[in-house]
């Protein structure tokens, strides 16, 4: 079995298939293109009809990492909108340092261009930070945030410890960067620039978290290699009305490792947001 044939029982816990094959192609889009914002050309794709859900990928990755989830969203009647963060995938960047606030501005510009007044957000790692910052700063545009596998202050991160699974993910990111990026030879500089952002941002206080007024589900893999489990609990306890869902048997890479498990949690969170 390969990644390109993904029944409910599909698993890739060690990311062997992800390193070898990447992810399956995204479903056929209704629209894809680039938009220019603040020195970057941002690539995006819109798939399906219905209520819009914006999926924001993790650091060093790209929108294709969400292919399992995009297919599940379309099958459930949603419109999946995927964005390559600036400097990632097919999107470019200028010389400005990476910041979550800057990338949140890219997403708002995309929403305006696609006439999306309000959307649900599914964020993974760096994408989760972008989504929650949008929920904090532009609550009128955010129906809810599924926040998977990130920290909102530097103390929430675990010390980095390389593992074979992490190394396989990094290998795939390097291959995809070479294939997709407008600057395919700049991977090492890209990694350093993104890493600087991750080490220093975001830095939300408890008071800032307590002021968030959109529905939030904190989703955490029980074996996450990068995020302290107590930080996930802190976020759920501090953001008003937030819930914490722990996913057993998976890590920081749950959407790739056990897509059906992640997708069930994702769809449950989105259904909760629409009830608010």
TrEMBL record:
AB hydrolase-1 domain: residues covered: 52-145
Alphabetical keyword list: Hydrolase
Biological process according to GO: glycerolipid catabolic process
GO molecular function, a single term: triacylglycerol lipase activity
Name listed for the protein in its UniProt record: Alpha/beta hydrolase
Phylogenetic classification of the source organism: Bacteria, Pseudomonadati, Pseudomonadota, Alphaproteobacteria, Hyphomicrobiales
